[in-house]
């Protein structure tokens, strides 16, 4: 009986505190965090040709953590009135000049206002240390892109969707689970970064291996604290000319995309030969799982995976977990993971993405 009284008192005091705090917040003066000034590259430096069917603008906007994000805005030419819009990002370790920009520009050619953005800490976006990642902050990046798109006069706020490629597929779904403004969410060859980092590929990490990983990551923090800066991992992908018969196919595919003319970009963590992600990047993903509330996703959901992609199981398992009654899983025949990074093999199902967003952003 005493325990029940204590519990009731705690619940009452917590509720009272929450109500009082909300009232205080509403009465306080809001302190504005200014958008940072970033020197953006104005020359066309994408891995894909510039389209003559869309207008292109470099833009910036900030997320609720005060980090300024750099983005490419694509607007269909000769279109009048308010349009549906789509925010795009990914793959994990890539920049907007690579796959996300291709997806964004192609969707803009098909009638959508789109924005491809560099996530916090990467590319031209702000945030220190460089080449860091966070499931929470990067999920917020998608919501910040929604904020930005919804502020445009030519965007219908009730017709906004998002699309995530690779690791940002998981972030996109995580955003859709919390942000009710998202009316449609699509993924392409998605990864669940928290799952792969905490459990290894195909959930193969043993308890002993996980403990060793945590020890190594946390031991590296001593060096960071001593040096005053975050230590970077060495290059993320081996040069294509160092691929051997022993190299796992998916790693060879990554290298052939990120380290060659096909997909190389100097600002991408996955391309940069001088170092990729900071060494402690996996910590938050290893301890705080994404997609815990996938069952709460109510937005229309399209999950696209390659038939031969090593990542296919992420898409299939996540599809089962998504709660939306309007969801579809598409397996692209004979496609590997990186086949859907660019359209070199004409395997990206752009017609499917277009129809999905047209059907669900109307």
UniProtKB/TrEMBL annotation:
Gene3D superfamilies: 1.10.10.800, alpha/beta hydrolase. Residues 66-245 form the Xaa-Pro dipeptidyl-peptidase-like domain. InterPro entries: AB_hydrolase_fold, Polyketide_trans_af380, Xaa-Pro-like_dom. It comes from the Bacteria. The keyword Signal applies. Residues 1-23 form the signal peptide. GO terms for molecular function: hydrolase activity. Keywords: Signal. The keyword Phosphoprotein does not apply. This is Xaa-Pro dipeptidyl-peptidase-like domain-containing protein. It comes from Gilliamella apicola.
């Amino acid at each position: 009986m005493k325990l029940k009284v204590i519990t009731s008192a705690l619940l009452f005091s917590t509720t009272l505190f929450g109500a009082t705090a909300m009232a205080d917040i509403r009465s306080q003066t809001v302190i504005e965090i200014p958008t940072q000034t970033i020197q953006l590259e104005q020359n066309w430096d994408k891995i894909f040709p510039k389209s003559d069917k869309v207008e292109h603008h470099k833009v910036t906007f900030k997320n609720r953590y005060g980090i300024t994000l750099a983005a490419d805005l694509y607007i269909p030419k000769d279109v009048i009135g308010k349009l549906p819009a789509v925010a795009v990002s990914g793959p994990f370790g890539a920049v907007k000049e690579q796959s996300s920009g291709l997806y964004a520009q192609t969707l803009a050619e098909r009638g959508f206002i789109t924005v491809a953005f560099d996530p916090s800490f990467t590319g031209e976006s702000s945030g220190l240390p460089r080449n860091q990642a966070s499931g929470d902050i990067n999920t917020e990046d998608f919501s910040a892109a929604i904020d930005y798109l919804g502020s445009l006069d030519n965007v219908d706020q009730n017709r906004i969707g998002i699309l995530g490629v690779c690791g940002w597929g998981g972030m996109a779904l995580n955003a859709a689970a919390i942000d009710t403004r998202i009316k449609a969410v699509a993924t392409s060859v998605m990864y669940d970064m928290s799952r792969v980092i905490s459990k290894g590929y195909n959930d193969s990490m043993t308890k002993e291996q996980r403990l060793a990983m945590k020890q190594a990551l946390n031991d590296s923090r001593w060096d960071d604290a001593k040096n005053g800066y975050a230590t970077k991992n060495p290059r993320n992908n081996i040069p294509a000319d160092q691929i051997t018969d022993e190299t796992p196919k998916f790693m060879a595919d990554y290298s052939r995309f990120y380290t060659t003319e096909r997909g190389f970009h100097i600002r991408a963590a996955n391309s940069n030969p001088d170092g990729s992600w900071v060494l402690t990047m996996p910590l938050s993903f290893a301890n705080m799982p994404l997609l815990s509330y996938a069952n709460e996703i109510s937005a229309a959901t399209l999950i696209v995976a390659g038939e031969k992609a090593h990542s296919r199981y992420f898409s299939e398992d996540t599809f089962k977990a998504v709660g939306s009654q309007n969801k579809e899983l598409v397996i692209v025949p004979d496609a590997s993971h990186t086949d859907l990074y660019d359209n070199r093999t004409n395997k990206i199902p752009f017609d499917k993405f277009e129809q999905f967003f047209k059907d669900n952003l109307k």
